[in-house]
Amino acid sequence: MELLTNLGLFIVSLTVLLKAADWFIDSAEDIGLSLGISPFIIGVTIVAFGTSLPELATSVAGVLKGEATIVVSNVIGSNITNIALVLGLVVVVVKQIKLHDGIWQIDMPYLLGSSFLLWFVLSDQQVTLFEALLFIAGLVIFLVYSLQSDDSEPSEYRKKASWKSYVGLVLGGVLVWLGADFTIQAITKMSSLMGIESEVIALTLVALGTSLPEVIVSLNAARKGKTSIAVGNVLGSNIFNTYAVISIPSFFGTLEISEQILAFSLPLMVVMTILFAVMTLSRNISRWEGLLLLMFYMFFIVELF
Asked: What is the pLDDT of residues 221-278, one digit of tens each?
């Protein structure tokens, strides 16, 4: 009964977390437009950061609750889920994805670089202050390069934001934190009751739950024929996960990296990233490649348990 209670708490708190993140993103978009910020800039900053907000919130809450192993597990699990499950589902649904030629100019090399950098940083089982600041710098550089392609006039998009936008921003932020806090509490209790390490739950349930925004956004974009948005969402989310969700929680406490993460999950994440990059070389991802990604995800889940 206690296990079912905590499972229910996990589902409810994660649902609140995801819904609150939506409110926060929508409100931030409205306020950004009211300040004359163009939709492109909002997309590569607020929306991209917002889809990684659940991962960031649960990671910070994990450090403060003494469950620091959740941080790295959450990032690696989410990155694997985004590529293997999210991208795999999108390709299977739409049969194939045609990519634009510019994907190898900045986005894909940056994703590969972030993946190898994460592997190198975690190899000594610690994240130092210098490494955290290096990740922050990497995120800033990515944003600057992304924003350089925006040639629109900000004033074109200016509109007035209502009081509901400001209330939604504050309420969304508060609920994101509460949702993350109770999610971590539920994970801690469930891992104790089931005798499963909390990092395994973070690699699977938490990673899958916090990746739901990417699943929904990518599938909706794919159904509307906007497959490049679906791929861009995976790219942007993984880059934000690596640079922001690893670095920011490390300012609140010492992160813990287990041997299991270094031996299996982290190398698999790097392999999945390389496979993703190889698939994009032809500027076309086929359905059989999507099925291959889903098979990798099933392998990942089975090996963990």
From this structure: 666 666 666 677 788 888 888 999 899 999 988 888 888 889 888 999 999 999 999 9
Query: What separation in angstroms does the CA of 189 have from each of 3, 177, 185, 210, 301?
Result: 8, 19, 6, 19, 21
DSSP lists the bridge partners of residue 285 as 97
Question: In a 10 Å sphere around its CB, with 0-12 CB exposed, 13-18 middle and 19+ buried, how is residue 250 labelled?
Answer: buried
Burial label, 254 (beta-carbon count in 10 A; 0-12, 13-18, 19+) = exposed
Neighbours of 28 (CB within 10 A): 23
First CA to last CA across the chain, in angstroms? 23
Encode 292-302: b = buried (16+ Cβ within 10 Å), e = exposed.
Answer: ebbebbeebbe
Residue 168, both tokens: 């939604």
- Looking at per-residue confidence, does 209 or 171 come out higher? 171
3-state DSSP call for residue 69? helix
Written as one letter, the residue type at 155 is: S
With tokens 């348990």, the residue in question is: 305
- Strands of the chain (E only): list them: 96-98, 284-286
CATH class of the domain at 2-304:
mainly alpha
**Amino acid letter, 284:** N
Domain boundaries, the chain: 2-304
Give tens-digit pLDDT for 39-51. Answer: 556 655 666 667 6
pTM (predicted TM-score): 0.78
Amino acid 263 reads: A
Alpha carbon distance 217, 214 (integer Å): 5
Whole-angstrom Cα distance, residue 39 to residue 60?
Answer: 29
Query: How far apart, in whole angstroms, are the C-alpha atoms of residue 122 and residue 285?
Result: 31
Measure Cα distances from 305 to 195, 196, 276, 300 in Å.
12, 9, 25, 9
Which residues are within 8 A (CB) of 102 and not within 5 positions of it... i.e. 6 or more apart? Answer: none
In 95-226, alpha helices (H): 107-122, 129-147, 163-194, 198-201, 207-210, 212-223
